[in-house]
């Protein structure tokens, strides 16, 4: 069941010295969680049940966790979603292909472009459309920009959860600088609706490259500030180190991806493993950690921002000229040949994938969205929360990079 | 953990010295980006109300609603988009798809209103502060979601077609037709422009979905001359096509031809012609078997009346046969199309000239209703000296001869006078008859020529030379040659038809030596039969009718086509025929009812 590459990595990892003491995992991760749930006698007075969310800022969105506490310690966690269900997958079945394009970005608020890219890539693959080269470069730029924006805000969220409020504000403010760039490029700040099947909607506006460079410098400076204020901070270290350890053995059975997996030393990165767009032409490497705790995951996320900045600079230097959009058939009655495909991309949170089925009509038969949040927030969190203090719960969730809108697509 | 970890966080204080990120509204204002997708703006003069924005909007935020005060032009539905901003998601697909490019978005950031109703408004119509913004999202040519390029029709090369009367357009193949059909927006602006209101989007959809049988049925619902129209229609639909505003209009005519060509061998079977029709009491006489008359005959027969067509020639088809040369409309195509009409059970009396062989009054007594559709058969002559010189021909008579299979020798140099479609047919036929040099003399400029642009273009390809702002004044014969004295013109004030009136320039006379002169300057209606049944005619010789019902001043006598409209195109005649059939049916039904009441 395990891939050879992954099994080897885990074996090497097991042999290496553990930097931080691991939580005793007596449960086999391949066993379903519901089979292991315990009964708690709530009338005994020993336990108390509280709802963490959906209005708690540490929940990173509209979901809630039902916690059973014994004193300060969490003995059971159940995730509840459904506060934000919009049914995008079903909505798409009632919309023509081009009409799906404006709605998918809403699947994830901080990182809409990954969704736009995946829908476009899926449609292009099914319909056999080649996009112009420049469009592929611009798409990569957009994906890296939005990754930086999302991770910057996430970094702020992580800091905020541990009481380092100014960093939260810096993060949001710097995300807004990137949103200014998006406004200039796409006409929208949060929902860009820019990566359209066939390419991207319009080429760079005048002076856009210079603005990107300016913002990237600003962001780089912010990261160096955060380095001092957050990563070399006694409070943050005390609380984050050792918290929420995810053993490498969990990665495959749970389907953990992204920085969360890489922090455990498992080298999964779609950009390298299965290069899409022009990632094979860019110079970067997988950023791996080992400690697999909240501190390590946050550090990796910071490194990812720096990596994105480097990639963006590379792209701006090497982007070729040319058209940005391939001509589509008349989108009002565009029929896609019958077939199915799975396209995937690395989002800030992990692997994101679209499984698309076409029955040859004007409407997609089925679109299934695979997001990292579903795994991280629904399954892993339930396991990970147990044994931790209630006070650490707020810091645990952002470290898994969950985005409830993505769970309820 | 070290002392450094305790001191390092105080670095955060450094940021207090930096400039804040926020702006001080309202002291400072921040303008939206040039491409910002704010509220919509719409240039209502440019907008044609095609509703493609409504079609593509995935939120159903757009409704097309009538707007009173706009000046509705030709090819304009009179509707304008009304947008509900409770639904709009600002995706700008409506902007990217807009065929005219009238729709855009402003870059206004902030709008505050206490009235929720105000969030539903008509951009460009309702007064908003951003109404005339020129910044904001606009579609570029690259971003346009529609395909402005026509699928070209394969045609004979000019060098080949110059020597033959064979049909020059080969017709679309399946892939071409499907490709062309897929460009259609289904806005339906064309339906209104078509005189007989053919359901164009539906039959184009039938081509796209390869349901040609359905397509043929849709064609015959409104036009029994679809096959001819698919070749020679003046295509008013294409003039107003939404895609034509920024690209090539859909080749509606060629698509129509595609359906009829592909289903030609099974036409009667698909349409169910030959099966028993409902029978109604009443007979209708139709005078003139041209497009108007035969259309009326087809629909009246399908209503269940007994129909007799009186035709002065020995073949049916009128101007379609005698006015349009073989290379545009082959006679065998016309024959098989007329045969379909006759197969419904229409009776024809050939070589009967009403007014001479039989009087209009006699016919009136014989039938319950009459439809006069004799067309405009007389070619107009120019009132100039020497017009009756041998070698000076009348365009219509010339085309008539060619239609009957004659191939007159025109000599080497031919002068054609006129700028209409007849002039084009004449000059291109002359090329095919072997004339080395063919000149078209027209008294206005190319912009004012009533002929279709396509025809003019093709004539040029075939080597026809055009002399604009020139008119002949005198023709004399010297030896074998004709000497034509001409004069240059200049354009003056617009006349009643809106075209600028040509005025001769004094002293600009010059002489041209040619072998043949063909006058193709217009046609007249022969309405001499009218007085036999006290039917009123106008001073131009056309029949006077009630424009709503096509009934003349005499009850039961209807008139339509060129003889009522003046010289016009086939599709107007067909429209008249269809309309007349409807009202003749109403008239006869009402008569029957009246009889019952009086008894």
Task: Kindly describe this structure.
The complex is a heterodimer of chains A (409) and B (599). With 409 residues, chain A is mainly α. Chain A has helices at residues 4-15, 88-93, 97-104, 112-127, 133-161, 165-186, 208-231, 234-240, 248-254, 258-262, 270-273, 294-318, 372-385, 390-399, 404-407; strands spanning 47-52, 64-70, 73-80, 195-196, 199-200, 339-346, 351-358, 364-370. In chain A, the strands form 3 sheets. In chain A, strands 1-2-3 form a 3-stranded antiparallel beta sheet. In chain A, α5 (133-161) runs antiparallel to α6 and α6 (165-186) runs antiparallel to α7. Mean pLDDT of chain A is 86; it is low at 16-24. Chain B is α/β, with parallel strands linked by helices. Chain B has 4 domains: 27-145, 2-Layer Sandwich (Alpha-Beta Plaits), CATH 3.30.70.3270; 158-271, Alpha-helical ferredoxin (Fumarate Reductase Iron-sulfur Protein, Chain B, domain 2, Orthogonal Bundle); 283-376 and 552-598, FAD/NAD(P)-binding domain; 379-524, FAD/NAD(P)-binding domain (3-Layer(bba) Sandwich), CATH 3.50.50. Chain B has a 5-stranded parallel beta sheet, with helices on both faces. The longest helix of chain B has 29 residues, at 570-598. Residues 594-599 of chain B have low confidence and may be disordered. The A-B interface holds A 95-96, 98-103, 164, 166-167, 170, 173, 176, 180, 183-188, 191, 193, 201-203, 205, 225, 228-230, 232-235, 237-238, 323-325, 327-333 and B 1, 4-6, 8-9, 11-12, 14-15, 21, 32-37, 52, 55-56, 58, 89-93, 96-97, 105, 137, 140, 142-143, 145-147, 182-186, 208.
Annotate the secondary structure layout.
The complex is a heterodimer of chains A (409) and B (599).
Chain A: H1 4-15, E1 47-52, E2 64-70, E3 73-80, H2 88-93, H3 97-104, H4 112-127, H5 133-161, H6 165-186, E4 195-196, E5 199-200, H7 208-231, H8 234-240, H9 248-254, H10 258-262, H11 270-273, H12 294-318, E6 339-346, E7 351-358, E8 364-370, H13 372-385, H14 390-399, H15 404-407
Antiparallel strand pairs in A: 1-2, 2-3, 4-5, 6-7, 7-8
Helix pairs in contact in A: 3-4, 4-5, 5-6, 5-12, 5-14, 6-7, 7-12
Chain B: H1 3-7, E1 40-42, H2 52-56, E2 62-66, E3 79-84, H3 93-97, E4 103-105, E5 120-121, H4 158-161, H5 174-181, H6 189-193, H7 200-208, H8 212-222, H9 226-232, H10 236-240, H11 252-263, H12 267-271, E6 283-287, H13 291-303, E7 306-310, H14 319-322, H15 331-342, E8 347-349, H16 360-366, E9 369-372, E10 378-379, E11 392-394, H17 395-403, E12 413-417, H18 421-432, E13 437-441, H19 453-461, E14 465-467, E15 470-478, E16 481-494, E17 500-504, E18 510-514, E19 516-519, E20 523-524, E21 557-559, H20 562-565, H21 570-598
Parallel strand pairs in B: 6-7, 6-9, 7-8, 9-21, 11-19, 12-13, 12-19, 13-14
Antiparallel strand pairs in B: 1-4, 2-3, 3-5, 10-20, 15-16, 16-17, 16-18
Helix pairs in contact in B: 5-7, 5-11, 7-8, 7-11, 8-11, 9-11, 13-21, 17-18
């Amino acid at each position: 069941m395990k891939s050879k590459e992954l099994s080897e990595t885990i074996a090497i990892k097991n042999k290496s010295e553990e930097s931080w003491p691991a939580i005793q995992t007596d449960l086999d991760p391949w066993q379903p969680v519901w089979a292991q749930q315990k009964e708690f006698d709530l009338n005994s007075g020993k336990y108390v049940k509280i709802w963490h969310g959906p209005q708690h800022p540490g929940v990173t969105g509209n979901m809630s966790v039902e916690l059973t506490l014994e004193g300060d310690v969490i003995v059971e966690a159940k995730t509840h979603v459904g506060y934000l269900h919009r049914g995008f997958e079903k909505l798409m079945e009632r919309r023509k292909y081009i009409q799906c394009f404006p709605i998918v970005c809403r699947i994830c608020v901080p990182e809409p472009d990954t969704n736009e890219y995946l829908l476009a890539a899926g449609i292009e693959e099914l319909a056999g459309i080649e996009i112009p080269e420049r469009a592929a470069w611009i798409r990569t730029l957009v994906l890296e920009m939005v990754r930086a924006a999302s991770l910057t805000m996430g970094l702020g969220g992580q800091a905020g959860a541990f009481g380092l409020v100014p960093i939260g504000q810096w993060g949001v403010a710097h995300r807004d600088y990137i949103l200014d760039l998006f406004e200039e490029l796409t006409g929208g700040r949060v929902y860009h609706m820019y990566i359209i099947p066939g390419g991207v909607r319009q080429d760079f506006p005048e002076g856009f490259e210079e603005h990107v460079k300016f913002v990237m410098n600003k962001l780089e400076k912010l990261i160096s500030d955060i380095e001092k204020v957050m990563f070399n901070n006694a409070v943050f270290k005390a609380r984050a180190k050792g918290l929420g350890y995810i053993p490498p053995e969990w990665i495959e059975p749970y389907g953990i991806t992204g920085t969360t997996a890489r922090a455990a030393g498992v080298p999964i990165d779609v950009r390298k493993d299965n290069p899409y767009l022009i990632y094979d032409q860019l110079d970067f490497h997988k950023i791996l950690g080992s400690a697999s705790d909240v501190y390590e995951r946050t550090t990796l996320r910071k490194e990812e921002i720096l990596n994105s900045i480097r990639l963006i600079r590379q792209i701006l230097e090497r982007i070729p000229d040319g058209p940005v959009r391939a001509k589509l058939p008349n989108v009002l009655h565009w029929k896609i040949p019958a077939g199915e495909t799975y396209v995937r991309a690395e989002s800030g949170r992990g692997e994101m994938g679209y499984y698309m089925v076409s029955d040859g009509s004007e409407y997609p038969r089925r679109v299934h969205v695979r997001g990292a949040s579903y795994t991280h927030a629904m399954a892993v969190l339930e396991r990970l929360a147990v044994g931790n203090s209630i006070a650490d719960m707020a810091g645990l969730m952002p470290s898994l990079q969950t985005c409830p809108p993505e769970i309820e697509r | 953990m070290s002392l450094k970890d305790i001191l390092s966080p105080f670095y955060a204080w450094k940021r207090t010295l930096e400039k804040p990120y926020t702006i001080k509204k309202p002291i400072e204002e921040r303008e939206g980006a040039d491409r910002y997708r704010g509220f919509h703006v719409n240039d209502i003069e440019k907008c044609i109300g095609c509703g493609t924005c409504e079609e593509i909007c995935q939120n159903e935020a757009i409704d097309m609603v009538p707007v009173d005060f706009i000046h509705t032009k030709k090819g304009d539905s009179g509707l304008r988009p009304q947008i509900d901003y409770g639904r709009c998601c600002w995706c700008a697909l409506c902007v990217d798809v807009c065929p005219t490019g009238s729709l855009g978005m402003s870059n206004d950031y902030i709008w505050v209103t206490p009235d929720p109703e105000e969030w539903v408004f008509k951009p460009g119509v309702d007064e908003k502060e951003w109404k005339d913004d020129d910044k904001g999202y606009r579609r570029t040519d690259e971003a346009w979601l529609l395909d402005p390029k026509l699928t070209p029709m394969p045609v004979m090369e000019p060098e080949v077609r110059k020597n033959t009367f064979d049909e020059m357009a080969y017709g679309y193949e399946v892939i071409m037709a499907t490709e062309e059909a897929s460009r259609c927006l289904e806005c339906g602006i064309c339906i209104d422009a078509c005189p007989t209101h053919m359901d164009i989007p539906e039959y184009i959809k039938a081509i796209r979905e390869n349901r040609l049988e359905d397509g043929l049925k849709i064609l015959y619902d409104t036009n029994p001359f679809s096959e001819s129209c698919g070749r020679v229609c003046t295509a008013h639909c294409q003039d107003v096509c939404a895609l034509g505003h920024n690209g090539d209009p859909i080749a509606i005519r060629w698509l129509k031809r595609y359906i009829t060509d592909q289903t030609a061998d099974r036409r009667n079977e698909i349409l169910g012609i030959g099966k028993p029709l409902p029978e109604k009491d009443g007979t209708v006489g139709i005078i003139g078997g041209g497009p108007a008359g035969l259309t009326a005959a087809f629909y009246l027969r399908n209503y269940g009346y007994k129909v007799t067509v009186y035709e002065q020639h020995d073949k049916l088809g009128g101007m379609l046969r005698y006015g349009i040369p073989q290379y545009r409309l082959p006679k065998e195509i016309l024959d098989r199309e007329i045969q379909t009409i006759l197969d419904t059970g229409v009776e024809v009396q050939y070589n009967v000239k009403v007014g001479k062989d039989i009087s209009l009054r006699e016919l009136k007594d014989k039938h319950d209703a009459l439809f006069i559709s004799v067309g405009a058969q007389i070619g107009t002559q120019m009132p100039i000296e020497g017009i009756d010189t041998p070698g000076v021909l009348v365009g219509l008579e010339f085309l008539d001869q060619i239609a009957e299979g004659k191939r007159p020798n025109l000599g080497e140099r031919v002068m054609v006078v006129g700028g209409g479609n007849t002039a084009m047919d004449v000059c291109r036929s002359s090329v095919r008859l072997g004339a080395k040099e063919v000149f078209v003399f027209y008294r206005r400029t190319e912009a004012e020529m009533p002929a279709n642009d396509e025809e003019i273009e093709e004539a040029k390809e075939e080597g026809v030379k055009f002399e604009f702002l020139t008119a002949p004044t005198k023709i004399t014969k010297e030896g074998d040659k004709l000497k034509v004295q001409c004069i240059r013109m200049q354009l003056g004030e617009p006349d009643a038809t809106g075209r600028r009136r040509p005025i001769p320039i004094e002293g600009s006379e010059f002489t041209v030596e040619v072998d043949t002169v063909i006058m193709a300057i217009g046609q007249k209606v022969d309405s001499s039969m009218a007085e036999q049944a006290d039917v009123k005619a106008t001073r131009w010789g056309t029949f006077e009718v009630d424009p709503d019902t096509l009934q003349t001043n005499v009850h039961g006598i209807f008139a339509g086509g060129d003889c009522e409209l003046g010289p016009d195109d086939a599709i107007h005649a067909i429209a008249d025929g269809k309309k007349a059939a409807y009202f003749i049916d109403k008239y006869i039904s009402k008569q029957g009812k009246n009889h019952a009441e009086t008894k």
